Each structure stands twice: as C-alpha cells, then as structure tokens.
Amino acid sequence: MNKCSFIVTLVFLTGILPLSCDNMDNMFLFTGSNPAYFDAVDTTELYNELRDNSDIRWRIFRIPAPGVPMDCFAIQQDRLPEAVAAARVILFFSGNDVSFWNNYGEWKCLSDLDADFMTIDYRGYGRTLGKFTTSEESCYDDAQRAFSYLTDSLGYHRDSVTLVGFSLGTGVAVETAKRLKTVRQILFAPFTSIQVVANGITGGYNIPSRWLLESRFDNIRKITEIDQPLFILAGEDDMLFPPQDHAVKLYGKAEEPKHLMLIPGYDHPMFITKSFRHWRDSIVTFIGTGE
Length: 291
Prior knowledge:
Layout: H1 3-16, H2 21-29, H3 35-38, H4 44-52, E1 58-63, E2 70-75, E3 89-93, H5 104-110, E4 116-120, H6 136-153, E5 161-166, H7 168-180, E6 185-188, H8 194-202, H9 219-222, E7 230-235, H10 247-253, E8 258-263, H11 271-274, H12 276-289
Parallel strand pairs: 3-4, 3-5, 5-6, 6-7, 7-8
Antiparallel strand pairs: 1-2, 2-4
Helix pairs in contact: 6-7
C-alpha cells in the first residue's frame, strides 16, 4: 500500500467505518430513499402525461399490508375479467434512485410491449419516504407481495408474469425468480453482485466491500438456481457495470434457455429508454413465447 492509499484507508477506518452498514446502504445504495432527493422530484410530468393520454387505462394504488403499505402503478388493457388470467403482464423493478413518480420514461417503454404493466415503489421510496427503512430483504419482500397481488387479487396466472429489472432492480428480479420459480425474466444492465461493484470502487484503497455495505444482491450465485427463460441486455459502453464483467458473466453462469444482447453506443443511465428501438421487437417475442 502506498502512502496515499494508507492515508485514505486510515481516514476511512477512523471516520466512516463507525457508521453502521445499514446507514451506508441507505446513503450510497438506496439513494431514492433519501428525502433530499425525492423532495426535488417534479411529479407533474406523470400526471400531465396520463391526463393527456385518455387511451391509457392506468391507476395508482396502495397494496394494503399491516404497517407496511406499498404504492403501485399499473397499466392494463380493457378486457373481460375471465380474460385476465391468460393476459401477459410485466412486473418491473426499478433502479436505486427513482420512484415510479419520476420514472415516466422507463414505464412508458415497458408498457409498449403488448403486455399489461405494473411497477412498485420499494418501501421507503415515493409516498412512504422517510417512514420505513429500505434494505435488501425489504426489497425482496415487497417484490413477493407485488407478485402475490398480481396473481391473487388481480387474477393473472403466475405463468403469464414476466419479471423485469433494471440496474439494482435486477437483483430484486433474480431473487424473486429464485423464490417463486416463475417464468421469464428480463435483466437490463445487470450486475454480478453489489459486493463486486463495491470492490471495483474501493479496490485501490484496500477497503473490503463487506465493511461498506450490508447488502449483497448476489446475482452471480443465484442465477445458477434459476432455469426459467432469461434475457439479458446491456450497453456495451456501460461504465457503471461493464458488460464483460457483469452481463456476460451472468449469461455464462445461467441455465438455458437464455439470450444476451449487448447494444453498442449505450451507457448505463437511461439505458432502457435510449436503446428501446434496438430491443423492443425481440423482447415482445420473448414475453410472448419465452424464445
């Protein structure tokens, strides 16, 4: 360790490390649960867009639960109740720094895939901001509740659900697929594990990532336990999760059937919306057939 690295490590050990891992997770990982972040969000775009598109059958609702409410946004096509079970539906898990209130671009793309659509706010995000603490396990629990609501309350057949995750949400999608053994998952800009990402950031200072974050989101280990159809997409220019270090390795570990699409010229931020025209038709086919 050179002198500079030693000094940085010493400062870290004496100044930052005494913070709990839980605090560090909320400070650096679950940034969308930061009140200062969400206070600056303008939600008028969401309402204006929905108001101006009368053909969109949408609703914002809260899934009831003792002490832990969860807000959801859904877009559904008009159909008879008995036809809902066979309808395709996407359950979307977003990245770490957004609520569906300010995530209009992503859900607009994902609701244009010949399927119904639902997304959630993790507890501690959106309108539950500041009332609950977000954690890896709470994200998993929220996802499982959302899936149960889709199937038990809204009437979709579990085989009709496609799990979709972006960035941090890929960790939620992978765990949910592992727990529920559902069909089809789509991972946009995924990572192998949060610990690997943290090691890449702190590696030069010899600071073990386990000292920084309690969360693991260990996709690379869990992906081997899933045998449902999988589609992985990433931008070749992703600087946050370089695809050769993350998407390609996940694809290599995954069971068949699986697909990998690396799209040149795209970075991590707003990957879904910016690259939409490149992947839309392939994903529509995948959602419909699993192939």
